[in-house]
Amino acid sequence: MSLVVNAEVVEQNEVMQGHFRLALNAPEVAAAARPGQFLHVSCGNTYDPLLRRPISIHTVDRQKGEVKLLYRVAGRGTALLSRLKGGDLVDVLGPLGNGFTLPAGSENVFAVAGGIGVAPLYFFLQELSGLKHKATVLLGAAAKEQLICVDEIKALGHTVLLATDNGSTGHRGTVVELFDLYARLPVHSCGDYNPDEEMSGYVYGCGPAAMLKELCAAVRENGFSGEVSLEERMGCGIGACLSCACKVKDGKGGFRHQRVCLDGPVFPVEEVVWA
Ligand SMILES: Cc1cc2nc3c(=O)[nH]c(=O)nc-3n(C[C@H](O)[C@H](O)[C@H](O)COP(=O)(O)OP(=O)(O)OC[C@H]3O[C@@H](n4cnc5c(N)ncnc54)[C@H](O)[C@@H]3O)c2cc1C
Ligand code: FES
Fold this sequence. Notes:
By secondary structure, this protein is α/β, with parallel strands linked by helices. Helices cover 19% and strands 33% of the residues. The chain has 3 domains: 93 residues, Translation factors (Elongation Factor Tu (Ef-tu), domain 3); 120 residues, Nucleotide-binding domain of ferredoxin-NADP reductase (FNR) module (Rossmann fold, 3-Layer(aba) Sandwich); 46 residues, Dihydroorotate dehydrogenase B (pyrk subunit), domain 3. Helix 4 links the parallel strand 9 and strand 10. The site of flavin-adenine dinucleotide has 22 residues, from strand 4, strand 6 and helix 2. Pathway: Pyrimidine metabolism; UMP biosynthesis via de novo pathway; orotate from (S)-dihydroorotate (NAD(+) route): step 1/1.
């Protein structure tokens, strides 16, 4: 079920330079939302910009009827969004998209986020924590000051590993390199050390396309499986305009197109065809 809602802004805070957390009063959306879904947000009160902007659902508080978005100012639409104040109204369409699959068993779960990719994964990790399922969360950014949600994710009970490009904290290098190093550790799935056994697990990824491409390769090379949330520019957000097409394997050695807004944004690692 997706809805068009004129949601009231509860509050908006700048959590880091150019990054905002926007809380909206939208009880029906909060009730229906699942991790990995997104809202298609009308960023201004005029026809400029004309198109809505897709922003992932970062977290919901179903009791309060609130939905939060966490976003980076990338251009005109998000810059307009960042000016909203408590009491303002914002037109949102959603929740849209398929969302992440919650694990059914007790497998090792890894969440790998690059930069603002942590936004939808936080909602997923919150739901996972509610199921008493702990994950290993790998967060990457250019520098320590640009890592978001580290303490909030630790507070959910998950293990957090960090990677920064400049080495200011955690692994010096990319979050995918860190995942690759970690995935090669000989640890039994129940946590006991066993040098003869390889780790296995299911990976949830979100971040820039270049990072996700590398992550999908690392997941496959290490014999893991998983799913990634793709980003494409969107028009309608509901499957009608085909502007958000991506390529997935067709099972016969070729590919077919799917719509990121309707068939995704979450796709199995094994299915995505990268350019
Ligand atoms: C399903 C989905 C969920 C998303 N969730 C979030 C989120 O939670 N937080 C967040 O900060 N961003 C998220 N994005 C990206 C966000 O939609 C774009 O940053 C936003 O639309 C940019 O709009 P703008 O008007 O500010 O910038 P524009 O002026 O439209 O573009 C500025 C720059 O961003 C690039 N860009 C614009 N849209 C996209 C896009 N969809 N994918 C990749 N690059 C783009 C443009 O090529 C340009 O270089 C998500 C995108 C998708 C598809
Ligand atoms: S944005 Fe129109 S089909 Fe996906």
